[in-house]
TrEMBL record:
Keywords linked to the UniProt accession: Pyridoxal phosphate
Function: Pyridoxal 5'-phosphate (PLP)-binding protein, which is involved in PLP homeostasis.
Protein name: Pyridoxal phosphate homeostasis protein
This protein's record includes keyword RNA-binding: no
PANTHER family, sorted: PROLINE SYNTHETASE CO-TRANSCRIBED BACTERIAL HOMOLOG PROTEIN, PYRIDOXAL PHOSPHATE HOMEOSTASIS PROTEIN
Amino acid sequence: METIAERLKSALATIKQSTLKANRPLNSVKLLAVSKTKPVSDIVQAYEAGQRLFGENYVQEGVEKVLALKSYDDIEWHFIGPLQSNKTRLVAEHFDWMHTVDRLKIAQRLNDQRSAHKYLNVCIQVNIDDDQNKSGVSPDQLAPLALAIQKMPNLVLRGLMTIPTANQEISKQLSSFAKMAELFNQLKAVYPSVDTLSMGMSGDMPQAITCGSTMVRIGTGIFGHRK
Ligand SMILES: *Cc1c(COP(=O)(O)O)cnc(C)c1O
């Protein structure tokens, strides 16, 4: 069986290959290692292999890991799961990034609960396939939410995130990612702080990179299957 270090290395090689194939600059795509359900010891293995960006989906589990790994102070923690408004404080207090802002109330609470000393980086989640099972704003709800976030002093609007409908044909994946890229470019033209397009997972990473992803979120490809 491959080790976490080996799988990490091949994920990075795939990212590099896809980036070059898309004629994009090297290092324009970051790797977020999604460690949900995996033990702290797995995160440490990835860390020792050089990984610094980690993503968690479940707020309680994520906070436990953030606290357990406090001494690894160059880890950047990303919250990428759905968030109920009564749990925003945990994200505001413990994470560096929040990828799944999808309504004003969540943004407001995060802003109110974030310490003024350190900005919380946020992405707005877009439901690009209009999928009933996915959260996220529709493209026409994006501009007003972005404007509201941009005015919040403790948040920095960094970009957009999406989770497309699973198991679609490649042509459909490409068209959803291309729509995201268009929304991202429009947003970037208005807000200079916007630099992140969070899209692509283990099953669709090359397609996401082809279309302009700047951060891929890989779980299974690094840590193996989840129970
Ligand atoms: C679990 C998860 C991932 C990683 O998925 P894999 O298919 O295991 O790579 C990425 N993004 C989000 C939002 C997730 O919940």
